[in-house]
Structures are given as C-alpha cells and as structure tokens.
Amino acid sequence: MKLRLINKKDNNDYKTVRVGNIEIGGEQLIMMAGPCAIESKEQMLASAKAVKEAGGHILRGGAFKPRTSPYSFQGLGEEGLEILKEVGEHYQLPVISEVMDPRDVEMISRYVDVIQIGTRNMQNFSLLKEAGRANKPILLKRGMAATIEDWLMAAEYIAAEGNQDIILCERGIRTFENYTRNTLDIAAVPIIKSLTYLPIIVDPSHGTGRRELVAPMAKAAIAAGVDGLMVEIHPSPCDALSDGPQSLELPEFADLMVETQELHKMIKNVHYLK
Predict the structure, then answer these.
(1) 123 Cβ partners below 8 Å, 6+ apart?
(2) Does residue 136 lie in a domain region?
(3) I need a surface site. Which of 7, 26, 43, 176 has the fewest CB within 10 A?
C-alpha cells in the first residue's frame, strides 16, 4: 500500500484532530450522537439536550440522506442544516453532518464543524478532492464493500489536497451474513492504528442495524482501542423517519455513556500499568 501522506512513521505517530475544544485521537473517548435524520427543531432540541446532559461531545444529524430507495425520506437539506447549527449553538455542541455533492461542500461548511463523507460516497473522488480543499475536519466512513486499502487511499485523496484533519469511521461492511444490517469489522481498529496516524471511531449503529447490539459492539470497539464512537439516538425511535430500529432511546444513550466512559477509563488504566 503506497500511502505518502497519512502513513504511520513510527509506533508513537498519532494525530489528534481538533474540533473546537475537543481532541479526537487524544486521551479522551469522544462520543458523537444524534438522530440519523434531522426531522424537526423539536426533535433536535430533545436529542441535543440528551447528548449534552449525558456528557456527549458532538451532535450529529443528517440533512441530506442517501437512501437505498428513492421513495424514502431524503432529508430536509439546507433547512435541516440551519436547525442543526442553531441547536448545536444553543447547547454549545459542535455539529457534524454528511455531504453528498461536491457542489455542496462550501455551503455545508457554513453550518457544521465536521463534514462527514458517508459510505456510499467513500470513492466519490470529486467529493474527496473538494473536501480536501475545505477548511474543516473530515470524517470519512468506510465504504460498505471497501477494503482497508480502498478506505485509506480515499483518505489519501483528501490529504493530497491539503487537508489532513481526517477522522476514519468503521461502520460495518457487507458480507453474506444477514442477521445484522452490516458486519462490524472491529479488527479494522488495530489494523488502522498500525498503518496510519489518523484517529479512528466506530459506528455500531450502522454496523449492526440493531438497537440491542449497539452497546456490546461499542464496548468491543473500546477494547480494540478506538478513539471515539458515533451512535444514533432518537426521542421516539418507533416514529423515526430513518433508521429507527438501530436508534437508541434517550435514556438508553445516557446509560451507554456511563458504561463506555467507565470501560474506557479502566482500559486506559490497564495500559498505564503495563
């Protein structure tokens, strides 16, 4: 694999990506949480309040939704971004949302603190190049059928345009297994850490598609050495316009925050003792 810009130089070569006062890739386990899709201001206010009170760090919400069916809810677009920005500022939470079109990178940069490139666009090379010219951190999700080399080369496209504030996100890949929505590749975490200095987070919501599996897979990711997590939450998952079955209820998210922070602290202490 011929990485030129994001390759790991030595065992102590780790990069932190700053989002406001937050460091991704440092000592703290970073939690990004929020609804899959922005549906209304009320929904986002309730979600942001839960994220803030539980100690979450970054508010997520989709304004442009690439859906398998063209008849599914496609998101509120720029109106949704306006809601996300307003709610994030109200609760003093940085915000992240997905961009799908290179022509929208400049526009979305006005609203978000982190630009997300989703699984379906991981090899949209025009989008990767445009994101590389943006003055914002980029979260790059692994493509649903991408090898680790494909994924890292996509990150190299962004870095080659001058932006090395890249966060990688393992969100599950497609295999022959159909019990879960995707197969979450936990092994990708230590592999990525051996190949590149970029931080990596895990999305157990998309990785499994099942609410009851989010917590155990989040904990497995922490044990593997992940730098952060991205989970989907909703005030009423049964009424969600997108991805309700994998979205945690707000009290479930609060419990997950306690459990994951305690586990992360315990594992850090074990590593320190070594």
Answers:
(1) 143, 146, 150, 154
(2) yes
(3) 176
